Amino acid sequence: MHELSISLNTVDAVVEHATRQGFKRVTAVTLGIGTLSCIEPQALQTGFEFACRGTMVEGAMLGIDMISARAWCQSCQQSVTLAARGMCCPNCQGYQLVIETGEELMIKHIEVE
């Protein structure tokens, strides 16, 4: 379950940032996750709750913003939305796609006290 290691690393980064800024408690964290990132949101939620134990992030709400997948089709020269990895271009059915978005994993927002 790679979501646990992602959760541990996320909590470490949040604690480091909040501590450096002089905050005492983190009340919410929002992550941006690409739909092609192979990250299961429910498993990430479970891992996050575990990773927060005993830290200033314990009890914080985890928000997840899913980032849709977009790719540039080199065949028809258009930006297209993809539902899943390995799909063809919905316009020309070509497979010469360059992923633009959808593989992200980022901390978007931290709420603190």
Would you mind describing this structure in some detail?
It is a single chain. The protein is of the alpha+beta class. The chain has a domain at 2-68 and 102-112: hypothetical protein PF0899 fold. It is 27% helix and 35% strand. The protein has a three-stranded mixed β-sheet. It is elongated. It starts with a helix and ends with a strand. Ni(2+) binds at residue 2. Zn(2+) binds at residues 73, 76, 89, 92.
Structural features:
6 strands, 113 residues, single chain, three-stranded antiparallel beta sheet, zinc, alpha+beta, hypothetical protein PF0899 fold
Low-confidence spans: none
Q: Strand percentage, roughly?
A: 25-35%
Report the structural category: alpha+beta
Percent of residues in helices: 25-40%
General shape: elongated
CATH architecture designation of the domain at 2-68 and 102-112: 2-Layer Sandwich
> How far is it from the N-terminal to the C-terminal residue, by CA?
31 Å
Mean pLDDT: 96
Please, how many helices? 2
Widest beta sheet: strand line-up: 2-1-6
**Total E-strand runs:** 6
Secondary-structure element series: HEHEEEEE
Q: Which fold name corresponds to the CATH topology of the domain at 2-68 and 102-112? A: hypothetical protein PF0899 fold
Identify the CATH class of the domain at 2-68 and 102-112: Alpha Beta
Radius of gyration, rounded? 17 Å
| Main beta-sheet annotation | 3 strands, mixed
Pfam family, one: HypA
Binding site for Zn(2+): 73, 76, 89, 92
Function: Involved in the maturation of [NiFe] hydrogenases. Required for nickel insertion into the metal center of the hydrogenase.
Binding site for Ni(2+): 2
